[in-house]
User: Which sequence fits this backbone?
């Protein structure tokens, strides 16, 4: 039996960071999305978005594909199977924490 | 944007929220209906529907480019595509059947309007099916209004189209569909702009 604090500490920090959680939530809802859409969705600056995407890519949660569309550079981002499983498990953890928190006593 | 439910909704229904794409089609429908309403037989001049269709296609292309450059690109999941394909095919067949019945049988209701209302409800269920939440309430609202207009003759409002200066119920219903399409398109676009603001975080 884990304590509430152990459960909180057990959350994956790579996913739980608000910007990365928003990015993964968006990416799990579609097949792929481009850089511009993700930037508008999160409101992050270009540098910050790149940094978060790189961390997610290093963690194997997303795939980044750089290509040209109509002679313009276009960055397409797609969630991996590992990322899909991780974000779904994260939501279950959050939901369980929410339920458990109602039984916590001061 | 902070709300995770809203993020899921926008990412799932990004193409449906590009409402301005529907505006040229709505405008074209209203224009062609008004042209048809004032027709004198035999018809020799088809300039209005041709200009309307070409103009709406050019506008549609321009709006498509605008969304691509201002909001980016999202590819939908196969599940979402399948649902849209299914509702479009079933809706299209039902609309054709309703149009044929409205044109060939004198009914106290507009079947075309009722099918459009049912289509709006089905589309609303489709777009909120994968993401639960109360978004785009103009869909059910439009369905209720359209169903109301469609059964007006049955409720005592016979020949309401004549009061609007229109020849028959079908023209009236088609214009109502066109006007709704324009309003819904602008509404959807406002929702998209509000949920995907162009402002960035402070550096």
Assistant:
């Amino acid at each position: 039996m884990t304590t509430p604090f152990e459960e909180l500490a057990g959350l994956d920090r790579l996913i739980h960071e608000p910007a990365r959680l928003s990015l993964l939530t968006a990416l799990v809802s579609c097949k792929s999305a481009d850089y511009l859409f993700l930037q508008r969705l999160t409101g992050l600056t270009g540098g910050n978005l790149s940094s978060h995407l790189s961390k997610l890519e290093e963690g194997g949660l997303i795939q980044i594909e750089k290509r040209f569309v109509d002679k313009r550079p276009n960055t397409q981002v797609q969630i991996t199977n590992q990322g899909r499983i991780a974000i779904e498990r994260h939501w279950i953890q959050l939901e369980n924490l929410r339920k458990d928190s109602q039984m916590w006593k001061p | 944007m902070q709300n995770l439910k809203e993020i899921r909704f926008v990412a799932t229904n990004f193409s449906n929220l590009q409402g301005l794409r529907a505006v040229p089609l709505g405008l074209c429908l209203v224009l062609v209906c008004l042209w048809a309403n004032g027709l004198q037989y035999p018809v020799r001049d088809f300039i209005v529907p041709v200009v309307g269709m070409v103009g709406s296609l050019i506008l549609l292309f321009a709006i498509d480019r605008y969304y691509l450059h201002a909001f980016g690109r999202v590819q939908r999941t196969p599940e979402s595509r399948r649902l849209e394909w299914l509702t479009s095919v079933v809706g299209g067949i039902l609309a054709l059947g309703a149009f044929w019945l409205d044109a060939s049988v004198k009914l106290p209701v507009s079947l075309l309007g009722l099918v459009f209302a049912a289509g709006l409800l089905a589309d609303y269920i489709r777009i909120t099916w994968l993401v639960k939440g109360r978004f785009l309430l103009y869909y059910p609202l439009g369905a209720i209004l359209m169903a109301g207009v469609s059964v007006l003759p049955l409720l005592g409002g016979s020949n309401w189209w004549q009061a609007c200066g229109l020849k028959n119920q079908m023209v009236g219903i088609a214009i109502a569909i066109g006007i709704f399409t324009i309003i819904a398109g602008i509404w959807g676009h406002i929702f998209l702009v509000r949920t995907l603001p162009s402002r960035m975080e402070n550096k």
Chain B has eight helices and one strand.
